[in-house]
Amino acid sequence: MEVTLGKAQGIDLRITAPPSKSFTHRALVAASLARGPSTIQDPLHSDDTTITATALRNLGVSIVWEEGAVRISGMDGRFPTREETLLDLGDSGTSMRFFAALAPLATNPVVLKGSLRMHERPIGPLVSALREVGGEVRYLGEEGYPPLRVAGALRGGDVVVDGSISSQFISALLMAAPCGEGDLSLTVSPPPVSRSYLDLTADVMSAFGAPPDRKGYTRFFVKGGTGYRGRTYRIEGDFSSASYFLAMGAVCGGRVRMGNLNRRSPQGDRRFPDILEEMGCRVLWSGGGLLLESDGSLSGIDVEMSESPDTVQTLCAVAAFARSQTRITGIGHLRHKESDRIQATAGALRILGGDVRVEGDTLTIHPRPLRGGVIDPKGDHRTAMAFAVIALGLGGVTIRDAECVSKSYPQFWDHLKEAGLL
User: Fold this and answer.
1) How many CA atoms lie within 13 A of 386 on its CB side?
2) What are the angstrom distances between the C-alpha of 120 and each of 48, 337, 341?
3) Domain range enclosing 178
4) DSSP codes of every residue in 379-402
5) Three-state SS for 361?
6) pLDDT at residue 146, as a whole number
7) So what's the pLDDT on residue 307?
8) 176, 203, 224 — which closes off a domain?
């Protein structure tokens, strides 16, 4: 599917942020391992969260999706599989990392595979850590990458995890640890990227009755054998998904009223409204949401984004319309996402006439008049949605493979249409 967008000016949007993908993944896992039933209210039903739910079903969990909720019968810390189980985790990096750590909780071995891109995304640090705490992991392809065959048990112990590639390696071990046979003492070295996601993990673990003891973002302790407790749990709104509409308001001028956002959320991307305010927008928080106003006059910014990786591309879209240079640092780990998002963003901006420079983990955007063109996000949902922002600010931009947004925000184009922007 291709989408062509015209230039928009003076927009006036009222929209509700969709549920958080990161919280939904974690709540599905905790509820599936819990003692007793759980109801997850307002879950995100997207390609990625469906992959996680389907994998849990294949491990024996009863999961029923309803309107506005999902009901789960917890397995009390074990997956009673009857034979070796194959899990196809597609393009979901969170699912691949989480199920690598969850697989030793199954009665029989589990084979994990994914898309071609998933087999290019590193998992070596997690595998090394799993082997130290009792997991029996064998690479079925290239060393350090999926697919994997996982067996063994989670016996616990002391383990050091490399946090330089993905915080999901740490989150995966933490989520599985309450159901392990022994205590887990986890040290992160070097300090992790995207560390705000560890706050999300701890938040969900605590909500389901298994809070980790921690010292900042470098030391964690989880008591083994404690497990999770079933409960009713509501998923909060997603700042990453909300960022695209807030960016449209910033670039096109006008106002955006965004509901279902928790100002005190542990999500790292909660910084995004503050960044837009620093660039020249006006942001007012009220109740469970915010109002953003912009006259379209934007200044560049110098900002470190290691804690807010999923809004880097949205920021680049806004920066393309700023009057001065924007310099974004701390984003080297974006090379290991659904695509190399640094090069993907730089390349797509250059197609539209942008002046972009990449040096190590730094991306710099210099003001320059843009032109229309065709953007192929190559299956990356965040690239597609970020360039929808540019398309509305510029006009004459076509986005190919537009349906890839279903990975995290299936209603994205529908919401644009409802707002009269498509």
Assistant:
1) 26
2) 18, 10, 14
3) 21-224
4) T-HHHHHHHHHHHHHHS-EEESSG
5) coil
6) 98
7) 87
8) 224
Is residue 7 a contact partner of residue 201, using CB atoms and an 8 Å limit? no
Q: Residue 343: its pLDDT value, please? A: 87
Model pLDDT, residue 337: 64
CATH code of the domain containing 176: 3.65.10.10
Give the SS3 label for residue 164: coil
Q: Is 88 a catalytic residue?
A: no
Kindly report the number of other CB atoms within 10 A of residue 353's CB atom. 14
Tokens 């949902």 -> residue: 381
49 closest CA partner among 76, 18, 86: 18
Do 48 and 180 belong to one domain? yes
Assess whether 152 and 12 both reside in one domain: no
Q: How many other C-beta atoms lie within 10 A of the C-beta of residue 416?
A: 23
Residues 297 and 302: their CA atoms lie apart, in Å, by: 17
In the set 162, 238, 310, 376, the catalytic residue is 310
Instruction: Give the three-state DSSP class for 267.
Output: coil
Residues 8 and 39 in one domain: no
Mean pLDDT per 10-residue segment, the chain (422 residues): 95 96 98 98 97 98 97 97 97 97 98 96 96 98 97 96 92 98 95 90 98 96 97 98 98 97 95 98 95 97 92 96 95 70 90 93 93 94 96 96 96 95 90
**What is the predicted pLDDT for the residue at 339?**
66
Token couple for 378: 């190559």
| Token reading at 218 | 């470098």
Q: Compute CA distances 200 → 50, 204, 209, 268, 274, whole Å.
A: 20, 6, 14, 9, 20
